[in-house]
Amino acid sequence: MASSGAEFVVIANRLPVDRDVLADGTVAWRKSPGGLVTALEPVMKSQGGAWIGWHGAPDETLEPFDDDGLHLVPVPLSSQEVEEYYEGFSNATLWPLYHDVVAPPAFRREWWDSYVAVNRRFAERAAEEAAQGAVVWVQDYQLQLVPTMLRELRPDLRIGFFLHIPFPPTELFQQLPWRRQILEGLLGADLVGFQLPGAAQNFVRLVRQRVGHKTHRDMVYLPDGRGVLAKAYPISIDAQGFEDLARSERVTRRAAEIRASLGNPRKVLLGIDRLDYTKGLRQRIRAFGELVRDGSVDLDDAVFVQVATPSRERVDQYRILRDDIDRLVGRINGDVGKIGQQPVQYLHASYPREEMAALYRAADVMVVTPLRDGMNLVAKEYVACRYDDQGALVLSEFAGAAAELKQAYLVNPYDINGTKAALLQAMEAGERENGKRMKAMRKHVMEHDIERWARTFLQELSEVGSHDKNPRPASVS
Ligand code: GDG
User: Fold this and answer.
1) For each successive 10 residues of the chain (477 residues), what is the average pLDDT?
2) Which ligand 1 atom sits nearest the alpha carbon of residue 373?
3) H-helix or E-strand containing 132?
4) Which residues belong to CATH 3.40.50.2000 in the chain?
5) b/e for 199-232, b at 16 or more Cβ within 10 A?
6) Whole-angstrom distance, CA of residue 195 vs CA of residue 3
7) C-alpha 274 to ligand 1 mean position (Å)
8) Other C-beta atoms within 10 Å of 382: how many?
9) How many H-runs (helices) and E-runs (strands) does the chain carry?
10) What gap in Å lies between CA 324 and CA 317, rounded to an integer?
11) Which atom of ligand 1 is the closest one to the Cα of 401?
12) Do residues 228 and 220 touch, judged by C-beta distance below 8 A?
């Protein structure tokens, strides 16, 4: 297909659609709400792009199909591969390792073998779909071997890679038995993108130390003369889309309804996260519980709403976390609650985007306190929804978003007393103070949206490697 294929190809673990089986048994595909597809859709449509990814059902092979102007290419995964490549190597090895080992990563050789086999399948599929000289953009930690596998099959392609999660410091990355293969896998790309400059630096340092290539600043020079650029492209959201939603009448009405059903407390605090041990839910809920227990926060005055979206429920550590949080919330509500008044309203569920926007508008204090997070889009979504320049954001220093949202109330989530102090400060700050902070954060988020992120990445991908732009310095170390 090389000569007639797609000029622009996205490869991601999942296709950007979910399957709905309608009442009459017919199948329909519904676009999943992520920002990535929103950002890439215009490019995909104008360039006749293809998206390669798993369709979400194991042991099923589907033919490529078109949906709403997108060409979708499903990659099959067996149940065993879902267990080993996805739940195993991706989510029980790489995910904890790349997030500061906040949970111990498991190293299993059969998981690695499966990761290699699945990455090869994605690369082969992309090699078939891409037109001569096409641009291919590989997404995230599940597919780090794809760039080199694809380059070996199709040296004519221009390949970009973007990592959505943190890239760990040398000391942690070294634990990985397959560290060299991962680095070499990524080096197949012309441009390797990260959320933060520190992650790009970690990568370049590791390549120098572990693979022995020459590097200079953000460039890696390979023995064959090719250059690889490693750089930060902080991801964002469809900021205007969120603002428009927040302004809509339905969302305005719903936000008021939410506050009323909480008993119109003076302050509503809100957390929205995938139920994941990197998100710092335990520490955050404990901090709020202590504030109520020690009388700093009055039960009549404030309520904490925590939405925890079900996630990776077949991975052991996620099951343990769910039980832990259930117990913790139960204990706090049991200890300090009163009839009809529970300090923590805990919802283990997933909601439509509109409901999310209503929650953002209903919340006086948004609490985003991950122990480590590549970016954290929830923080940016909250800011985009606060067109009234009100509301306060309590944000972990360890979320990538903290590098941009500097006017948030920044906290070290491991410091429970510090978190308690920041929650109180955010609750007690006046409209003027919060207005000033929110205005500054909104300016940044509205200007740096996902469309700009995608455009910048693709622009630099089209330029990297051209020798006048990245000349090899006379002496590189
Ligand atoms: C990874 C990185 C990086 C959540 N619950 C519901 C729902 N969500 C949406 C949010 C937000 C997204 O899911 C979560 O994004 P985050 O950035 O907060 O976190 P991860 O899922 O861990 O994402 C992260 C991101 O990739 C992008 O590069 O920022 O660091 O870990 O958009 O709104 N959406 C709906 N219902 C829910 O119940 N509709």
Assistant:
1) 78 92 86 76 83 96 92 97 97 97 96 98 98 96 98 98 97 97 98 98 97 97 96 96 97 98 96 96 97 94 95 90 96 92 94 96 98 97 97 98 98 98 97 97 97 95 70 61
2) 30
3) strand 130-139
4) 2-235+453-463, 239-447
5) bbbbbbebbbebeebbbbebbbbeeeeebbbbbb
6) 34
7) 7
8) 32
9) 17, 18
10) 10
11) 29
12) yes
Using CA atoms, how far apart are residues 445 and 439, in angstroms rounded to an integer?
Answer: 10
Query: What burial letters (b/e) apply to 442-467, b meaning 16+ CB within 10 Å?
Result: bebbbebbbbebbeebbebbeebeee
- Are the C-beta atoms of residues 208 and 348 closer than 8 Å to each other? no
Question: Are 414 and 371 spatial neighbours (Cβ–Cβ below 8 Å)?
Answer: yes
Handedness of CA 91, 93, 95, 100 (dihedral sign): positive
Rounded distance from Cα 394 to ligand 1 centre (Å)? 17
CATH class held by domain 2-235+453-463: alpha beta
Q: Which residue has the tokens 């009163």?
A: 338
Q: Which two tokens stand for residue 144?
A: 């780090």
CATH code of domain 239-447: 3.40.50.2000
Say how many Å lie between the CA of residue 228 and the centre of ligand 1: 29
Among residues 178, 215, 22, the alpha carbon closest in space to that of 94 is found at 178
**Dist. CA 360 → ligand 1 center (Å):** 14
Helix axes of 239-247 and 353-362: crossing angle, nearest 10 degrees: 70
Q: What is the token pair recorded at 281?
A: 């839910």
| CA 429/CA 425 separation, integer angstroms | 6
Distance CA 422, CA 447 (A): 27
Place of tokens 């509109």: 354
pLDDT at 466: 56
Q: What is the pTM of this model?
A: 0.96
385 residue type, one letter: C
Q: Which one of 195, 306, 377 would you pick to mutate in the ligand 1 pocket, going by the greatest count of ligand atoms within 8 A of its CB?
A: 377
Q: Is the CB of 425 under 6 A from ligand 1?
A: no
